[in-house]
Amino acid sequence: MQEIAIRVRLREQERVGLAEYERIVGSVATVAALTAWLPTPDARLVIRGRGAEPVRLETVSYGSTFEMLVVLDQRSAAVERAAATVAALIESVRYEHVEDDVSGVAGELDRLDRSAPRGRSVAERSLRAFLEGARADVLARKSTTRLRAASALVRLAEEAAEITVERVEDALASELTEQPVDVLADTGAAVVVEPVDGIEAPEEPSTPKRDELGTADGKQAKQKSKDKDKDKDKDKSKDKDKGDKKKSKKKSKDKDDKKTKKKAKKK
Length: 267
Prior knowledge:
alpha+beta; single chain; 6 helices
């Protein structure tokens, strides 16, 4: 099985200093640990230490884009679905300002909760419960591991991060070979991620248009009616010919009868 990786891309970044670099790396690593925890919500959430540290972490910046690849020490499909759930959550708030100075952190978490995927998988239900719990910690003024992990999620949302889920062939290779993971359908255990080209509608059986009916079927109907009319005319002409023949025969017979009567009188 291949290791699961999360690629985080931050665009329109100014020059990243050491403090900012550490903050971004810490946020991404925390979200990666949260992703690995979502399929097992009854377990203890650990964001630092054994079981939470990634296998490999690579960063690169080009222009105003900062990109980070985090390879998790995870291979299960459940963690892959959890990563897709987090990616769908961040994608849902990419084009709106998550930060709300009036309502504070509680309002930011509440907005994330409203935007979270509403599927019935363990990862989706765990993510919603996690956000609700973190919001309760804020209102209760508690500093918890859950709140720290939720704050890292909020920071990525504020930065309009782009998250993609990938599979890595060999995490210890000198050069990584990644393959993007596509989650296509919602079966109650997966996240709905719409394809790039959109969802194709099923093809409907083609029905002839009115114009086509007028040109094709209409011509056939007209031709049939013409043929029927011709047949009727032929039948009428035949009947007329028969009647004419009968009349002519009758006339000739009457003439013959008259001639025979005249001959009989002369005699």
